[in-house]
Amino acid sequence: MKTSRTKSESLKLAPHRQVQKFLLSTPAPLSDDFESTALIVREAYTGLRQRAGHQQRIGPTGRTALTLSFRTPAEDHGGIIIPDYDHVGDMMCAYLAVLYGKRFDNHGALESSGYFRVPDLAALDAYVDRRVPTASDQPRADFSIPLSLRELDRLAPLMLGPSGRSPEATVFRTASRFYLRALQTEEADIEIAYLHLVTCGEVLSNGLDVNADQLLDAQTRRAIEKIETGMADGPKLARMIRGKLRAIRRRFIWSLQHLMEPAFFLRGEAEHAYERLRSETFLKVLGAAYDLRSHYLHTGKPFGEWVRPRGSSPPEVITGRPIMDDRQFSQILASAPTFTGLERVIRYGLLRFAQTRLDVRLSDEAGPQHNV
What is the dihedral of CA 167, 170, 175, 177, to 10 degrees? Predict the structure, then answer.
């Protein structure tokens, strides 16, 4: 009887099959907690024996550690198949990254499906430049969300509501993962990080309803209309031309432009106005970002040193005119945004998409929001 009671009490200390706990981290100094009936996100503190414990940062690069806890439905594992919920930790990091505009890393489970786990702490030692906007101690210029976990409640409709099961939510989740990869790759490989941002924009553009004529400038639309009404087989030719012009590049440019607002161009991450994105050149800048990705994939010519963030207020556009043997490459670089500029565009687009398509509650101090 004594043995039975001891075994019963020890089971209370064992990991619960339905409770999953993960370790996350970020260079940003997040405070407070987020609690709901479905999940909890709390800061994890260093031990009292650690000299820097009172600073609430861990690792040589100084990170804020977080615990993500959530309950899953009861399942019969059958003693063979053990569910893996790492994708939930990855997705939460993507949501957090978009919301705050900061890098997040999922170190893996501490407890999962009735077992203790050993998390991967390698990312705690990963170097990050704390001066750049995606790793700094300051809120971002756009959608300046305070660095408090309480703000995670803004994403409640997406995480816990019915809108989280919509096709638009699938688009947002996929795009957010590419955004997170860009932030995680920024230090190690700036060119691949840049490609991730362009891919994120492509995915996001697929979530918007676009009429083929919206992708065309006024002159091209008038020319197609003349063909459609002035020739015997005009309608057929017009359909063919519209199909040819409905390119991914055009959709990428139109979608990101459509998601921007005038207030976006009134501020920026760069210190000086001439280093910031401007409305009058925005279409050219977006086209150059896409062309830079394509040129890199086709030729392999590096461009990282031109777009890499530098300092606490890195430029959003490439200042000056790059001189090189490849004239086309030089022209693309002269118009392209830096990583910081493109990242700012992509995050803004993601949050505007979430606000208008997924009922995510966001506010922007620079001015009122408008429906897309």
Answer: 180
